[in-house]
Amino acid sequence: MQSVSLSFRKSLLFLAMMSLIAGTGFAQGAAPTGTTSKRPSASKATTPARPLQLEPKALEILKATSDKLAAAHTLSFTAVELFEQLTRQGAPLGYTAKYEVTLQRPDKLRVLKPADGNATSFYYDGKSMMGYSPAENLLAVADAPPTIDATLEKAYQLAGIYVPFDDVIVANPYGDLAPGLKHAYYVGQSHVVGGITTDIVAYAGDGVFVQLWVAAEDKLPRLMRAIFLDDPDHLRHELAFTDWKLDETVPANTFSPPPTASTAKRIPFAAAHPELPAGAKPPAKAQPAKAKQ
Fold first, then answer.
1. Mean pLDDT (whole number) for 126-148
2. Residue 73 located in a structural domain
3. Rounded distance, CA 72 to CA 155, Å?
4. Cβ atoms within 10 Å, residue 276
5. Cβ(221)–Cβ(198) under 8 Å?
6. Per-residue three-class SS string for 59-124
7. Mean pLDDT score, 138-144
8. pLDDT tens for residues 259-272?
9. Distances (CA, A) of 238 to 74, 243, 275
10. Ranges 16-30, 124-138, 258-272: which has the least confidence
């Protein structure tokens, strides 16, 4: 599966997941073009850079989170994504998406995207993967591999579909993350995020810097934010996680499209061509997917 940098870098593709079906996107208003006074730039600190290291406490928290997620036979959560896109005026706008996720290891996944934009959904039942767009009454269908990890890989290769929360639903989150880790350290605790006590870990690798808030009690992620080190604009990407449920019974029909999809026109999966938000500059091309060795 992909590293964390690819997960965030390709999250825009999933925001337009069903543009592979209907070519539809969403738009939010462009930044106003009125003049504003420019603030003087702050002088850069001359403090020597902290040497790269992998702090044991940070790794312990990352491993504990991975173990908790990997051990769950079923899990569900809600993820709200906030990402920035640079406008033609040079200022970033924030865009949002909401995902309702349910999975059953090793071979079932459902992702509902009720907003922003047209409501869309993705289903994987162990044999097929399906993308459903009720507004256009279209259903994309393709054969799928026998695991969630392999299906996510195929969905990206086949149609450019990528979920920004890939790193928390793969079979071994830490196993995927560890090979690219260059730096990880413990920041401290917060009592704000999610209204609970969280441990904050910062880590870097594969060209991305990530800050992660993990619940001190249940070891589940509550907030993740990332900045790409090769992005001159340092645009921010953020995921907030709520409504975690682990090892609860999931009805069998959860991983199949609703009855209304039976009348939908069936089409093959194809590469998406997402419509840019109003006033936004085209994003840089994502790097090709790297197959897990």
1. 95
2. yes
3. 23
4. 14
5. no
6. HHHHHHHHHHHHHCCEEEEEEEEEEEEEECCCCEEEEEEEEEEEEECCCEEEEEEEECCCCEEEEE
7. 95
8. 999 999 999 887 65
9. 24, 17, 21
10. 16-30
The CATH number covering residue 151 comes to 2.50.20.10
pLDDT in tens, 38-51: 444 444 455 566 66
Residue 113 lies in a domain: yes
Token look-up 């459903």 returns: 132
User: CA 20 → CA 15, 163, 268, 291, distances in Å?
Assistant: 11, 14, 9, 22
How many angstroms from the chain centroid is the CA of residue 122?
14
Would you state the pLDDT for residue 48?
A: 61
Residue 102 covered by a domain: yes
**pLDDT for 174-217, tens place per residue?**
999 999 999 999 999 999 999 999 999 999 998 899 999 999 99
| Residue 49: burial class (beta carbons within 10 Å; 0-12, 13-18, 19+) | exposed
154 part of a folded domain = yes
Q: Pick 220 or 229 by higher pLDDT.
A: 220
How far apart are the C-alpha atoms of 63 and 212, rounded to whole Å? 13
Angstrom distance (rounded) from CA 161 to CA 269: 10
Closest CA to 223 of 195, 181, 186, 260: 195
CA distances from 93 to 32, 162, 221, 241, 252 (A): 11, 22, 25, 22, 40
Count of alpha carbons within 13 angstroms of residue 231, beta-carbon side: 23
CB–CB of 113/119 below 8 Å? yes
CA gap 270, 267 in Å, rounded: 9
CA distance 14 to 286: 13
Considering its fold, how many domains does the chain have in total?
Answer: 1
Radius of gyration of the chain (CA): 20
Q: What's the pTM value of the predicted model, to 2 decimals?
A: 0.78
> In which domain, by residue range, is 167 found?
4-20+53-179+234-267
